[in-house]
Amino acid sequence: MISSFYKNNSDKIELGLIILAILSVIAYLTDLLGVFQKFEILQIYQLISLIVDCVFVGDFLIKIYIFRLSYFKGPWWLVDFIAALPIIASLGFFTGIWDSVRITRTVRFFLILRVLRILRLTRVYKLMQFDSKDVNESESKKFKYTIWASTLFLTFFLITCMYYIHNHYSEEIANIIEFNLVLGLVVATLLSLFIVRVQVPDVTRSQIAKLLNIALPKQVADSFLKDPSLMNKAIEMPATIIFTDLIGFTSIVEDLNGDHKKLRSYLQKSLGIICDEHIKNNLIIDKFMGDCVMSFKGGNLVNGSPEEHAFSVVKASLNSKLVLRNSNLKYFNNARIGGASTDSALIGSFGTEKRLTYTVLGDAVNLASRLESASKHLGVENLFCEKTMKLTNNNCEFIWREVGDLIVEGKRNSIKGFEAILNNEDNRKWIDIFHKGLKYYTSKEFIDAKAEFSKVIELKFNGDNLSKYYINNCNNIINNNLPKNWQPIIETRK
Fold first, then answer.
1. What is the pTM of this model?
2. Is the Cα dihedral 289, 293, 294, 299 positive or negative?
3. 344 pLDDT higher than 50
């Protein structure tokens, strides 16, 4: 029962004992000034001191009982032991071993050693931020050696000083020197620990934040710094996922003739443009796969509804492509995009204790990847699932072109694919014509469909690869007759 109580309340107990140690040192300083003797309450002070001493002795013995030999592996047992030593002086006073009303100069230094208990604050600072298991595992050898060295040095220093001043100065002068010495040590110790507690964590936190922001999405890094327990959690929530793949990677590598520095530079510039747009729209950048970026929006680390998340993803997709086109980059100035939305994705940290990653899992992730691959086959700039279209269909910033029924790799059943297009007058003209041609196509009116798709090519700037794709299908069917059991379904390949 005692063991469980101590383990469950170790941080509170340590903090309470440290406060008690500070109060006992303050009381001792008051005694050095002769205040208790002046008001004739010296015996009351000594009684209270004995009770306080018993508390520290009890704490030391309980820890030996709970932790056994493991307690002596670290430096803290020495600090606890020294903090308990003043009981020798208290017992000497009450048993009459010391013939003086005040404690003799021979053992007086034991009371001063309690100031070392303040070193325990370094432990408490850690316990307030992490559990004790994490602290024990994370304490470095250098930190332990520092505590050992500090404790032994201060003990030797105090004993030497007390021995010297009480053998070379009168009682009155020795008390004044002792008072100033102990007060100085207390102030210096507290000031040092204040700096350790306030300044060092701020610097460390800043460094950790920079590292985390490189290794993790900013939203995730900020959340982990505020609440480390989130590192081990995952949650099922709606999400929209996109894969953005730079176009022409293989040919560009060949063109650069193995100049990896230039390749890296061009990749960084293009990926930087994409990521900037994703960050502007508060997307979580999941990972990089060569020249491809996986991002998503959803989970409990970003605000907004599923509709808002889907809208942000599509907007970031269109904006990134537009900025890439206008960037005047020699290479990697265009990209293909595939995206999918879902009502339930598993979002959070995955991996092992040694290596974690924050990501999203679910069928929508695979679908988004397959749609990105299918966009190349169809010649469209982006390709989203029907759910994404429905979630964002009420906005006015972009309009949707139905691509058709698709069978993507890894899927048995067909799905409807949609391309997001900026909403302007020029685009609205040809999109209606395209949908008319698609309707003819699904109705097996291939000559009429061909005519409408041809109009799209004429109206759309730089033509339309998807219309050309459908025209080619129409020609094959017209020239070779309609296959038996024909369905207006496009089988895409990776």
1. 0.62
2. positive
3. yes
